[in-house]
Design a protein that fits this description.
transcription regulation (chains A, B); transcription (chains A, B); 44% helix; HTH arsR-type domain-containing protein (chains A, B); HTH_MetalResp_TranReg (chains A, B); alpha+beta; DNA-binding; homodimer; 3 strands; WH-like_DNA-bd_sf (chains A, B)
Chain lengths: 118, 118
DNA sequence: CGTCCGTGTAGAAGACTGTCAATATAGGCA
DNA sequence: TGCCTATATTGACAGTCTTCTACACGGACG
């Protein structure tokens, strides 16, 4: 799920402010941030990440919103394709959890390095 | 330019993974990330941030892309309304620079706190 | 084996976004 | 004053995104 078509899964860790990013890096970073550009997905990620045990199952997530199941399913897929979360089926339920490394990569990208005093 | 209608300018610093964000916080965070969800804007931000002196003027930015002036102007406005950059006119040219605090807030939001070993 | 429940997929409507050409504004300079 | 350069605004078009309803899949359980 992280070697093939899943854009945004392996982002270079250099901060944006350190040096001009090239076109490919910019596309990857933008794709990852696009996954976080919707309030529902931000809340989903936060709900999953802060869930006791670090996992949440879908029905639990759906009931936190005033949206239909397919809509939540769509947003979960966007987050998963961006490499920010992953999931596993256990019997009837599907459990989701965050991929900490992906969040930390994005966090690093936004870091502002101490500016050299030119 | 950063107190009034500019949504996304003052984001709560708590990491998403620490506790479930409320609806308003999620909207603010998502709005900020939406500004970073386009490859052109990611490159613009990186170009401005890594420019010698921390400032860049528009013509310099336009010539880095295969896009028209109005398009770059549009993207700069999106970044500015998100509070990520700010600008000032000096004679004929307009200079842009990044707002480090805004980037650092977003970076903190993506931090994954050490999970309590429940 | 059949039914129910949880989850995902398909297709469509409406809103939003990125881009451009054309035009406007604002400042320097002759 | 009048022109030229630099930047922003407007309006339009094509593409994408969010959301829904309707339906399909897959496991549990009687």
């Amino acid at each position: 799920m992280s070697k093939h078509g899943c854009s945004g899964a392996d982002i270079c860790c250099a901060p944006l402010a350190a040096a001009p990013v090239d076109v490919d890096q910019a596309a990857e970073v933008a794709a990852a941030f696009k996954a976080l550009s919707d309030p529902v997905r931000v809340r989903l990620l936060s709900l999953i990440a802060s869930h006791p045990g670090g996992e949440a199952y879908v029905n639990n997530l759906i009931s936190a919103f005033d949206l239909t199941g397919p809509t939540i399913s769509h947003h979960l897929r966007v987050l998963r394709q961006a490499g920010l979360i992953d999931c596993e089926r256990r019997g009837t339920w599907v459990f989701y959890w965050v991929v900490p490394a992906a969040l930390e990569r994005l966090s690093t990208v936004l870091t502002v390095p101490a500016r050299s005093p030119s």
